[in-house]
């Protein structure tokens, strides 16, 4: 049987790393990169899908049955320009894609959320992430994997000076963060991507939450089971 991976957000930091791994993986015969623009990548099993901005989920119609859907979309409030615009990208868009996946019978949905995500959080960013997780849990997806990374390390196409400084500090002090603080260690985008792929392939059906401190071990499963 042909196994298909669909990735939304492949032009981002985590999404770009995940796309590389999906193309290298022998588990998938077809990889569809869906988004606002082409990734610019070329590979025999890669299909580029530039979606309709008004109805992104409609662009995936008929492609999700039995597929693994990976969602690595996201922005910042500063880049989005307002809380409403941020919510459109980080809540409305992934929820619409997830509903399409549930309607068509996708095999799995693996999505990047955030450490501390909670619908009751006083922080807007974490509250939006938590509300999204709640709604995803109501869709009846066969397999739902919520990935909650701490600060993400890696070279972004866009420059974020404050994140660069914070990342350097976090990387320096990360080894000292142990016990309850371990989950707050910064984590490399490549590790997150590997964990997402491993979870899609090996996590049980139902809802799985991968907190940041669990991601390195999950990522290692790719090598252990290859």
TrEMBL record:
<dbReference type="Pfam" id="PF08732">
    <property type="entry name" value="HIM1"/>
</dbReference>
<protein>
    <submittedName>
        <fullName>NAD(P)H-binding protein</fullName>
    </submittedName>
</protein>
<dbReference type="InterPro" id="IPR014843">
    <property type="entry name" value="Him1/Fmp52"/>
</dbReference>
<dbReference type="InterPro" id="IPR036291">
    <property type="entry name" value="NAD(P)-bd_dom_sf"/>
</dbReference>
